Amino acid sequence: MTRITIIGAGLYGAFAAKKLSKVPGLEITLISKKNYINFVPSVPRNFVTQNLDGYSRTLEEIFGDSITLIYDEAVSFDDKKVTTRKNGDVAFDVLIVATGSILSREFELPNTVDSAVEHFKKEFEQVERAKNITVIGGGISGCELVGELAHKFKDEIAKGEKRINLIHSNSNVLSDHEINSVRQSVKSQLEGMNVKLYLGQKATLDGDKVYAGSEEVPTDHIIWTTGVKPNTPDSPLEGLKNEKGEIKVKPTFQTVASPNIFAIGDCVDFVIKAVAPLKKWNSVLVDNVIAYVQDKPLTKQVVPPTNTDKPTCGVSLGPEHAAGQIATPFGTFSLPVFLIVQAKSKTMFKGRLSEI
């Protein structure tokens, strides 16, 4: 039996574990701090629903006894073993690192489903109680969270009883990976939802006060959606990571540092790490892991994204508003709002994890 160890039970790690568990001759071990998988793109909706119903599944429900589950933190790894905090060393023949990223406090969920539900209840209590909520960071996560809050509290906002602020250092919302028409649509829709936008200004704190540039922003509750970092365990392997701590991979998802270590998802050195290419990227990863085990050439590859790419994406702004774009060989074009609302905003992918 060939021992395959996977670190991280996010979307990429869980999908890979499920597919590889069906391959004869492979012994799969999955190391995860959490005993469940949650659909991270749905977290902005979880803030207002205060539950994970339809947005999470326990690992035991998904895998049963088809693989070995170790609930622990991977502290470090080399090309032969993973060292965990409580369970010691886990030896492997092939390693897949899918540890994702370190998110802001509000988006980083606890290790059990019950504690995650409590997390959202406490977060909701704070935003419900606050009169002036400030979200710092106007990327997709920040815009989606603001959209959820603006929809949930639209009556209070209209009456002047609550205010939602969004501070973003860029001169427009989102990033350069979104086309101008999509960015302008999101900006206009948020303004139409009475969100106060502070664009082209860096957020700073002075005690309890929040500033956008030199202007004080009325705030009694802050939510950060900036500062996401790769969640990569320590490793002595030379050349494994870049200066940002991201794992350097080839288009095959094989790491530059060691041929028997693969990596995928938010922890790798791809400019764009969205889940839109989940199935395609996982198919390439799994096929190449199998080829490596069978001592065959790794023929499957992806085209690594570049800084100028504008990929297919959708931005939900609560259950009734959205904007999005589609990438084609002829360019990237905006999509009708109703299509994104139907495809994403109405459910925020509720039930998507049933595909695993």
From TrEMBL:
GO CC terms of this entry: cytoplasm
Pfam family, one: Pyr_redox_2
Keyword Flavoprotein: yes
Domain named FAD/NAD(P)-binding: residues: 3-273
Keyword Ribonucleoprotein: no
Keywords of this entry: FAD, Flavoprotein, Oxidoreductase
This protein's name: FAD/NAD(P)-binding domain-containing protein
Organism: Ogataea polymorpha
